[in-house]
Amino acid sequence: MKLIEIRERTDEELKTLEAQLKEDLYGLRVQKSTNQLENTASLQVLRRDLARVKTVQSARASGIEESKKGSR
């Protein structure tokens, strides 16, 4: 997921996206621990996406970046 796509989302969408990414990350960790994960690079991609979401949320909370209002 690109940073531009994340910035286009509203604050509420970011919260749900963060929760979904955390859930997906947990699932991948379980798959890795049980040796069922085929693409281990997906863990890194997912962690980076989660970090991007949290960075945008933090920037909006501190006023560095304007938050998107309304729905699409």
How would you classify the helix and strand content by structural class? mainly alpha
* SSE run: HHH
Give the C-alpha Rg: 14 Å
Strands, total number? 0
Main beta sheet, described?
none
On the 0 to 100 scale, the average pLDDT is: 93
Please work out how many helical segments DSSP would assign.
Answer: 3
Portion of residues in beta strands equals under 5%
- In helices, the fraction of residues equals 55-70%
Low-pLDDT stretches:
none
- The general outline is elongated
- End-to-end Cα distance: 18 Å
Annotation keywords:
single chain, 72 residues, mainly alpha
Question: Care to describe what's here?
Answer:
The protein is an all-alpha fold and 72 residues long. 69% of the residues lie in helices and 0% in strands. The model has no long low-confidence stretch (mean pLDDT 93).
